[in-house]
Design goal:
The chain is α/β, with parallel strands linked by helices. Helices cover about 55% and strands about 10% of the residues.
Amino acid sequence: MPAPALASAPIVLIGPMGAGKTTLGQALAARLGRSFVDLDARIEAEAGQTVAAIFAQEGEAGFRRREAQALAAALETAEAVIATGGGAVLDAGNRAAMRAKATVVYLTVAPALQLERLRDDRSRPLLEGADPAARLAQLQAQREPLYREAAHLLFDAGTLAPDAAAAALAARLAEREAVPA
């Protein structure tokens, strides 16, 4: 399915934790004059607790229900840049809704850089345990086909600083929009 017209559709950033969805999303939204929505932050604000607390109280299934609801609401915001959580693609309904209502960009990142970015982050419930590198590899193996299924565009999020990456991604999106499907 082709992406909706960029001028009016949201842009959704997907990819693994540590890919830079929030950082790049904020820079891209500022560059394009769009609003920015961080799904995890929205879920935390609505729940009045952290993602880790939601996982502890409701399990991953409870969090994923909240995530699907937040995503559905965010997709109704025209001209937004939306940063999803890494697992938003696990739900087939989420993948279908993103592809139908937004331009979906899969931010790729090298595993070593991903691990470096997450090294001191203690807020990730799915990274708890003795071997975060092995856990990241396991999550990537599970989710990679889903990221690719959902995406209209792949973008290497690890090679540039946020402002330069936002400029490069904005140019890729504009170029993609100019090419008839």
